[in-house]
Amino acid sequence: MVQTVTDAHPADPIAQRLRDLGFVSGEPVRLVARGPLGGDPLLIQIGSTRFALRKTEAARVDVSVDGVA
Amino acid sequence: MSAASMRIALVGNPNCGKTALFNQLTGGRQKVANYAGVTVERKEGRFIAPSGRTLHVLDLPGAYSFDATSPDEAITRDVCHGRYPGEAAPDLIVCVADATNLRLHLRFVLEVRRLGRPVVLALNMMDAARRRGMVIDVEGLSRRLGVPVVETIAIKRGGAQALIERIDAAIPEIVPTAVDNAGIEQLHAEVRSILAETVTLPRDTAAIDDAIDRWALHPVFGLLILATLMFFIFQAVFSWAQPVMDGIQAGITGLGAWVTGFLPGDSALHSLLNDGVFAGLGAVLVFLPQILILFLFILVLEESGYLPRAAFLLDKMMFRVGLTGRAFIPLLSSFACAIPGIMATRSIQDPRDRLTTILVAPLMTCSARLPVYTLLIAAFIPDRAVWGVFNLQGVVLFALYFAGIFSALGVAFVMKRLRKDKSEHALIMELPSYRLPNVRDIALGLWERALIFLKRVGGIILALTVLLWFLSTFPGAPEGATQPAIDYSIAGRLGRMLEYIFAPIGFNWQICVALVPGLAAREVAVAALGTVYAMSGSDDAVASQLGPLISHQWSLATALSLLAWYVFAPQCMSTLAVIRRETNSWRNVAVAAGYLFGLAYLASFATYQIARALS
User: Fold this and answer.
1) Domains, chain B, with CATH or none
2) What are the residue ranges spanned by the domains of chain A?
3) Chain A residues within an 8 Å CB radius of B217
4) Mean predicted lDDT score pLDDT of chain A
5) ipTM of the shown complex
6) Does pLDDT of B541 surpass 50?
7) A29 — contact with chain B (CB < 8 Å)?
8) B451, B459 Cβ separation under 8 angstroms
9) Fewer CB in 10 Å around end: N or C, chain B?
10) What distances in angstroms separate CA B445 from CA B23, B35, B59, B454, one per listed residue?
11) pLDDT (tens digit, 9 = 90+) per residue, B544-600?
12) For domain A2-63, which architecture applies?
């Protein structure tokens, strides 16, 4: 479950785009897969859409874990 | 707006089927592919509605949001706002949404609704939604949104009928939206509330996607599958095409002999047709099957939705060398041709990542190089099995492709080191649902490629071949000349002049002559070699047998050196022109041409000298 998306720096366009894509408070998200090299990028499912996010991008999203990881 | 015509803009999230819908509406043949960023330029088509009105349809690039982060999102935003220079605001916006992906797409619909223009929502991919057991209350959705909603299946014939009727009926009224300046959280909240009311969704994703992705994205098997797939494609290009190519070859030789049989053997026209047209064009035309097989695979991969998976698998590696996983798609297109590849880089939002991708795209082995590679491979590399299963010629071809890929990675890495800006640039890429490729779309795509190729053969390649024939015929040999006539011609002299530059890398003057028209299009070099050798040989039959001929005349070192040259050389004016257009900078063109020429000369020099030392 997404808590919030934090700007890594002021007017962070990456954080803005993440919010546009639905990473907003209360949305359930799920880690579907990891990339083959060093587990990067991550494949994140939100709703019925899957996004590939690099770890640095995903780090902007604060999540709370509830039961199903 | 006149009563007789109306302007419609198709907008929507990337990969929701706008272009397929556009094709349905206009009967057009826009390229449709299952990845974001296919529509990289505005495309307009028109059709006559049942009421007799002419409807102009504009297919706009996909956008996630009007907060544009890429050049193509900016185009969509500006057109919709009526701010795009030279483009009137559309009379009606058809907002296309993937019914299976409403949570994401509805948010953009809400943004479009805020524009305060007439909007119709097309719920696309309804077939896939039903298959997944989704139930959508279309009327309820329409009531909540305050805009008409129609169901469409863009990939099925007649799947846009309801939409056409709705567009044709009347322009829907503009519904004032309650909250005009709602923040992003509120928009998402509204989407959630609409979905809760109108959509029943048994599960989030298609079971088949989960099953395929478990293997396709597996850290080990995923990479294995990708490598196997690529290797299989290149083996197929070489081995499947051979019988057809032999047939074409025989056909052209026969046709040439039949046509020129009516002409006196020593006339200029006989020479023009036999040495110029048939020798030149025939040498290129035989590569049609290989190019089509390559495109068949690329089209199927595009449509299936596998390509973004490959981008996912390779992102880390590409990121390390200063590219992005997204670059995989433009770079793969560049295997067909660097021009659509460079244009497809518009889907890379980030200007820096995009420029790097553009500059290395010419290193991908485009299909125009295939004629050169296959000619040389067939002439110099023995056709025998390696380790029982592989064909040595196929292995060499695969190695040449890899030489291009690795040098692209190397060049990107050097650029990464050289640039000053080291800030963070995002990947954030949607992985679409898998789709079964549509046979009709694939066939259309192949047909278009075949036409483009034949037009090139009939147009620029024919023109240059004839021009080259003139240059290599005139001025004629003086009385009592001992050398073949071409030695005295303009082309012959030019070739000998260039030979000084290219002798260190093992090119003879015939190759030098062929390289010049090859600047217009790479495969012309093969046609030009055909012409040059036909002109210098006494035997007319030689023309159709370029391969065996060069295998006698050239050393292996020369052949390998020419192969190395073609891996790098910026031998394509159209590519340089498209780099200029896409980056709006001559400097970038100079950088690309300069480094490619430098690499080409170095690689050929090394190849030639090493091969000579070893033989």
Assistant:
1) 5-200 (3.40.50.300), 438-554 (no CATH)
2) 2-63
3) 32-33, 43
4) 81
5) 0.89
6) no
7) no
8) no
9) C
10) 13, 16, 18, 14
11) 567 777 777 888 888 899 999 988 887 677 788 778 877 878 899 899 999 999 999
12) Roll (2.30)
